[in-house]
Amino acid sequence: MAFQLSGSNLGTRENRLGSITGYVGDLEDLASQSKCGTLTGCSRCFSQSSTCLSGCALGQLGGIRDVAIIHHGPAGCSATASSQYIVTNQVAAKRGVVNSSVYIGTDMDENDTIFGSTDALAEIILEVNRRYHPKAIFVSSSCATGIIGEDIDSVVDEVKEAIPVPVIAVHCEGFKSRIWATGFDISDHAVLSGIVEPPRKKQNTINFKNFYESARNEIIEMFQNFDLEPVFLYANATVEELKHLSEAVATTCICGTLGNYLGNGLEEVYGVPYIRTINPLGITGFETWLREIGRVAGKQPQVERYIEEQRNIYIPQIEAVKKELKGLKAVLGMGPGYTFEVTRVLNELGIEVVWALAWHYDKRYENGEIPPAMSYLLENDINFEASVADQQNFEVMNILNKFRPDLYLSRHPGSTVWAIKQGTPAVYVADEYMIFGYKHTLEFAHAILDTIRNRSFEQNLAKRVKLPYTDWWYQQEVGKFLEEAIS
Amino acid sequence: MSQVIENPRGGCVLAGINSVLGALNRVCPVYHAGPGCCMQTTASDPGQSGNKSSSFVSSVSIPSSNMLEREVVFGGTQKLKTTIEGAVEIIDADAYFVLTGCTAGIIGDDIVSVTTEFREKGIPVFPIETPGFAGDSNLGYEVIWNTMIDQVIEPTEEKEENLVNLFGIIPYHDPFWSGNLEEISRILKKLGLKVNTFFTEQQGMETIKSCARASLNIIIHPWILKGPAERFEEKFHVPYIRYPGLPIGASDTRRFVLKVAEALKLDDRLVNQVLEEEEVYVYRYLAQAIGTLSWKKFAVVADGSTAVGITRYLANDYSFTPVLVIISEPLYRQEDKERIVTELMTLEYAKPPRVVFCADQYEINQELLKQEDISLIIGSSNEEEVSSLKEVQNIVAAFPIKDRLIFNRAYAGYRGSLTLIEDLYDNL
Question: Which residues of A touch B43 (CB under 8 A)?
């Protein structure tokens, strides 16, 4: 697809990537339908809470150092500001830097929804600039501003000249996409269109898209073997660093859902190669990814040396722990950037995936191909029952109740809560690096063992907690409320 | 009017409505809103209130019509109808409340007609037509009680002489709500009363339906529930008293108990006996840890009720000096501000503090930074940063609380006051 960086708006994942949130079947069917283009996805006549794309978009942008987010909407839209502060400060403190970014709500009220508040917004942007002197200002819309037709682009254009740093309109009307990951693309689009500058000189950097850079030091150390210097995005990144993203050797990411738009955008617009392998989770994932980086950077011998050295340390240990994991059955529910990657790792560890839920599914990535994690599973004859559901908890509970697996894995704490209440041990794959490379794959295997070996809390809790779901629901097919999508 | 609020505390009114419902046993909220409203509101209120946020139906398990562009353009009542149908089929709740997001509010979906269809079939589905932009989250509690008064509470002329309704301790807006309700209820029970707390002891819809049988409504809060309390009295003939802040410690809890006793004409002997017992209990402990805390000059940053409670306790009972009190919730009625100021000015012992009303974190930080003579800041998680900048002691004791786990911990009443002192010590 052609990247249009001149406007502030971009298409949703539904429109760009044919992404869906409703499907029940199995992996093979999902992939073959994606390939031949017949996959349409279903909607639901009954649904539970989904999530707002603004959280993904502004959470990403708010992590950049010393910027201001102005969320133009009613008080509720900027509700996550407080957690954003805490996470931002902790992540900064961990690295030993100071992040002075601020998150501003504009507190729209009923009058504003009737009479509009663009004048007030212009004044707020100027006031925020006076108060905090940020390095960039992102001005976001919301459902309310979208429906009443507030033209934030014009407001931004109007104040731009009076402010010496980038002021960027960010379109976060929550109703425009049922896929919250569209928010990641929105943040990438803002950075690509408003901050990144054309390359002046090539550097030995590698753009590394991640969430909270918890494995920062070890990755820096690893890349030193290949004379590469990672620039982690966006938490703790500086606006100055972002300006130079176009000068990197390559772009890579820890999660395909997170990195897709920036990676493809930088490649298409500035010719920075995007590493499109399976992700560096588990053994095969790590090696495949690293070899591709070696190829792109012209460092193949160094990469091979590194792999051999590391294999000698970790593979025997991983093989040993695998014996204890053999025969376990798992269900997992995650964003698609992880679901099909983690299923591969579980398979590698000898754990049987009986059902995998993806919170959405991208039929193809920006380059027109189906996601590499899917291709890998198919090429290796790994198939299992699968569904796509935007965190629909009732469907998760129905599946868990049917399969009674040894464990449930999710990247969302709200989802593991309900599994645990039902008595299923759950692993919250919180840290994006929890399964990264050999070392963390080994740790992950041990975390699973710890989780299933002592089930005292899950079992005692489940005896005493009455879940809200009816017996009727547990007897239904999981896809009961799916209906053909009306586009 | 749109204004700059750095790091707002809590969410929109929808968040307040949702969190109060979350605290109610066996009740299911149904969002008629955009896909993000439920998670945003869950994050803003229950999610920032001591980490006790998973209730009967909460966050990802809450039914939501997840309104998209199609509903924005063509209306979302059909989607709402099938969402309620599904909710009734899969979730076994005592009542369902339909909540309105900004989107549904602006496009004007008629949720009352939809819910009426269900009510006519005998299914307890109640509409709440207050969209997110109508106010801040602390008003959610008021909206809920207006809904209950209009649609749920059953009128009766039969009154139970010793039954009281306890209002004003707002679930999640007060992170210590469970424990505070339990402690106040414990004290009232010692006075021979039966207490509807609504949110503890597995009370729920049945308690609400029958609460017009009470003899007195007790509101522990400086300003909330003005309108609903009057309407309750008009419609159900239950009078109310207002105690203007959280009673903490021996002095204020005595004042609170005497006010209740006066309104209900309780037996003096019993009342005095309870006061005596409780005060002996508290001072026996306090006497065992003298000198562990040095005297502090303190600032409080909190909602009105918490700020009044903590300031008065530490000044009147614990010899600390109040210097600055910042009321961090938006207040609109002059009389409410005056009531709070009066409580903070009429201290028995200390010189009154400077009082500031301000919800914007930037201004709050500026106020704290320019106040030189403080050695303790009692506030929310939002004040941790400025406390460390000033290098003064800090305790997180008010909403929002991100980094503490609070089950039944209480600061109210007698036992709560001891906990507050313990927390001050732990945090030295």
Answer: 79-80, 83
- Tokens standing for residue A354: 């009986």
pTM over cut 0.90: yes
Which residues in chain A have their CB less than 8 angstroms from residue B47's CB? 83
Clarify whether residues A297 and A232 are in a common domain.
Answer: yes
Print the domain residue range for A231: 205-302
Tell whether the model's pLDDT for residue B279 goes beyond 80. yes
pLDDT tens profile B125-169:
999 999 988 888 889 999 999 999 999 999 999 999 999 999 999
Q: How much of chain B exceeds pLDDT 90, in percent?
A: 85
- Is the domain of A339 the same as that of A373? yes
Residues A59 and A122 in one domain: yes
Which residue from B1, B43, B101 is facing A80, i.e. has the nearest CB?
B43
Mean pLDDT within B5-23: 88
Instruction: Give the A window 134-173 contacts with B, CB below 8 Å.
Output: 142-144, 147-148
Boundary residue ending a domain (A246, A268, A302) = A302
ipTM, two decimals, is 0.92
Arithmetic mean of pLDDT, B280-284 = 98
Q: Is B133 close to A110, i.e. CB distance below 8 A? A: yes
- Report the residue count for chain B: 428
Q: Which residues of A touch B45 (CB under 8 A)?
A: 79
pLDDT at B1 over 60: no
B1 touches A at CB < 8 Å:
yes
| CB within 8 Å of chain B, chain A residues 402-431 | 412, 414-415, 417-418, 421
The stretch B376-401 carries a mean pLDDT of 94
Based on the fold, state whether residues A445 and A328 are members of the same structural domain.
yes
A458 and A348 in a single domain? The answer is yes
Between the alpha carbon of residue A487 and those of residues B33, B69, B348, the distances in Å are 19, 10, 68
Of A266, A285, A302, which residue is a domain's last? A302
Give me the phi and psi of A206, to 5 degrees please.
Answer: -125, 125
* Domain count for chain A: 3
| Long-range Cβ pairs for the range A112-117 (8 Å, 24+) | A112/B1, A112/B2, A112/B133, A113/A144, A113/A148, A113/B102, A113/B105, A113/B106, A113/B133, A114/A148, A116/A148, A116/A150, A117/A72, A117/A150, A117/B1, A117/B2
Task: Using pLDDT thresholds of 50, 70 and 90, give the confidence band for residue B221.
Answer: very high
Question: Do A415 and A325 share a structural domain?
Answer: yes
* Ranges in chain A, pLDDT < 50: 487
What's the mean per-residue pLDDT of chain B? 95
CA A412 to chain CA mean position, Å? 11
User: Which residue of chain A is at minimal alpha-carbon distance from B382?
Assistant: A82
Which of A58, A129, A143 is most worth mutating to test chain B (most B CB atoms within 10 A of its CB)? Answer: A143
Q: How far apart are the C-alpha atoms of A174 and B375, rounded to whole Å?
A: 44
**Which one of A107, A127, A173, A428 makes the best mutation probe of the B interface by having the most chain B beta carbons within 10 Å?**
A107
Q: CB distance from B60 to chain A under 8 Å?
A: yes
pLDDT tens sequence across A385-405: 999 999 999 999 999 999 999
Q: How far apart, in Å, do the first and last CA atoms of chain A sit?
A: 21
Report the pLDDT averaged over residues B381-396.
Answer: 93
